[in-house]
Amino acid sequence: MPLRSGEELFGLLNVATPHTSHYSEEDLELLESVAFQIGSAIKRILLTDQEKEAARVSERNRLARDLHDSVNQMLFSVKLTAHAANEMSQESVSKQAFKVIEETSQQAVNEMRALIWQLKPVGLEHGLINALKNYSDILQIDLQVHVDGLINLPNMIEENLYRIIQEAINNTQKHSKSNIVELILNQQGDYIVVTVKDNGCGFDVQSTNIYQSHGISNMRQRAKVIDGKLKYYF
Fold first, then answer.
1. DSSP annotation of 202
2. In 3D, which of 147, 169, 167, 140 has the Cα closest to residue 222?
3. What positions belong to coiled-coil segments (predicted)?
4. Does the pTM of the predicted model rise above 0.85?
């Protein structure tokens, strides 16, 4: 008995009873009604999940717009003001202070742009590799990509992989001060292995307490969502 809602087919309902060779018209009508109810329930569940995902994306996009229109613009204004004050000031101490403000503001602007990109990744619709390269360009990181096999992933897996690799790239810049990141993607059948390497200086795992960091925790959770495993090598 097909499980359907409208024209959409979700599966089949198999019914078996002992010592029964055929079903009456009444039995078949009842089974059809049950199958229809199950199909309708599945459709409602799918619609609810889609609505939740749409709401999540909408809220994320709204937050990205707000950050761009408010905080990002204010930081840029502070940078321009500090630069102008530095040019007009005659005292060396004041010039140095304005220079520090300008450089710090620029760093904050860069981090804000990266945050906005994380909230609303432009380019993911053109593929995982393209989106990651665009993000790396914002961070001024040379991303070297090596692909082995045909990388063709469902949307949910692709987005979670993007977020995991994105956080890995962030960590290479923050902790190891790296400017070159090597990304290797190897798809073998139903499995894909993603390896991220950098040319950084490394860090003290014990003092950094990397295993309890918010970013690593998010990476673990996203890997779990797509039935993946996360491993670290220092």
1. -
2. 167
3. none
4. no
Burial of 17 (0-12, 13-18, 19+ CB in 10 A): exposed
Return the structure tokens found at 210: 């990397």
Q: Which fold has domain 124-226?
A: Heat Shock Protein 90 (3.30.565)
What local confidence, expressed as pLDDT, does residue 110 receive? 79
pLDDT at 68 > cutoff 80: no
pLDDT tens, residue by residue, 24-53: 888 788 888 888 888 888 878 877 776 776
* AA identity, residue 12: L
Collapsed DSSP state (helix, strand, coil) of residue 230: coil
> In which band, very low, low, confident or very high, does the pLDDT at 195 lie, cut at 50, 70 and 90?
very high
Q: Is the separation of the CB atoms in 142 and 136 below 8 Å?
A: yes
How many other C-beta atoms lie within 10 A of the C-beta of residue 99? 15
- Written as one string, the DSSP assignment of 39-87 is HHHHHHHHHHHHHHHHHHHHHHHHHHHHIIIIIIHHHHHHHHHHHHHHH
Secondary structure (3-state) at 123: coil
For the chain, residues classed under CATH 3.30.565.10 are 124-226
3-class secondary-structure state, position 3: strand
